[in-house]
């Protein structure tokens, strides 16, 4: 009989991520770059929902990734997926940058709570992640930001209001505006 083939070790996505994270814990620059590059598309897309300018989205992403690298030792796999942990840190970095810049530019026109926005229906449910990004980019920046926080990240109206430092009525108006603007686009796309 001939020589038996050695089983090929399957380097799964997780094994590779564990190796990269181990390098990041040692503050290895190559590992940090690999982690950054691996998740850049998803995280940049997240940050792009918050800002009209690519530069601002990139600043938020870089601020968030710096925090990820500084606190990578605090990640506990028992508490959830690494991507979710990192996503939360980057999203919070984007919210912090928004709050810091709020005094520089007033993107939100405060609206009194007369609308009573109540809709359990998520207009984005029938779409893929890629489609969602395409449609969200058609909304004005402030509306896109609130729509993403509410429908994609699951923030409540009050949480969005607190995070962005705006009235709940303003959040509700932007949610209503997003539904109004997206409805004809989605109806056409889903035919």
Automatic annotation (TrEMBL):
Family, per the entry?
A: Belongs to the sigma-70 factor family. ECF subfamily.
Name of this protein: Sigma-70 family RNA polymerase sigma factor
- InterPro entries with a match to the protein in the record: RNA_pol_sigma-70-like, RNA_pol_sigma-70_dom, RNA_pol_sigma70_r2, RNA_pol_sigma70_r4_t2, RNA_pol_sigma_r2, RNA_pol_sigma_r3/r4-like, WH-like_DNA-bd_sf
Supply the alphabetized keyword list.
DNA-binding, Sigma factor, Transcription, Transcription regulation
Q: Which PANTHER family match?
A: RNA POLYMERASE ECF-TYPE SIGMA FACTO, RNA POLYMERASE SIGMA FACTOR HI_1459-RELATED
Q: RNA polymerase sigma-70 region domain location, by residue?
A: 35-102
Tell me the SUPFAM superfamilies matching this sequence. Sigma2 domain of RNA polymerase sigma factors, Sigma3 and sigma4 domains of RNA polymerase sigma factors
The molecular function GO annotations come to:
DNA binding; sigma factor activity
Keyword Transcription among UniProt keywords: yes
Q: Which GO terms describe its biological process?
A: DNA-templated transcription initiation
Q: One Pfam family for this entry, by name?
A: Sigma70_r4_2
């Amino acid at each position: 009989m001939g020589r038996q083939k050695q089983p090929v070790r399957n380097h799964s996505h997780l094994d590779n991520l564990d190796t990269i994270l181990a390098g990041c814990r040692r503050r290895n620059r190559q590992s940090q770059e690999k982690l950054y590059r691996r998740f850049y598309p998803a995280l940049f897309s997240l940050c792009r929902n918050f800002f009209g300018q690519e530069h601002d989205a990139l600043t938020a992403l870089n601020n968030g990734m710096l925090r990820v690298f500084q606190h990578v030792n605090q990640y506990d796999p028992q508490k959830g997926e690494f991507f979710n942990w990192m996503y939360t840190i980057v999203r919070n970095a984007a919210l912090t940058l928004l709050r810091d810049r709020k005094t520089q530019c007033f993107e939100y026109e405060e609206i009194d709570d007369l609308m009573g926005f109540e809709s359990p229906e998520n207009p984005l449910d029938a779409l893929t992640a890629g489609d969602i990004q395409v449609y969200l980019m058609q909304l004005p920046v402030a509306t896109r930001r609130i729509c993403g926080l509410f429908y994609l990240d699951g923030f409540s109206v009050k949480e969005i209001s607190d995070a962005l430092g705006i009235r709940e009525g303003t959040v509700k108006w932007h949610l209503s505006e997003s539904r109004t603007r997206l409805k004809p686009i989605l109806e056409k796309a889903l035919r």
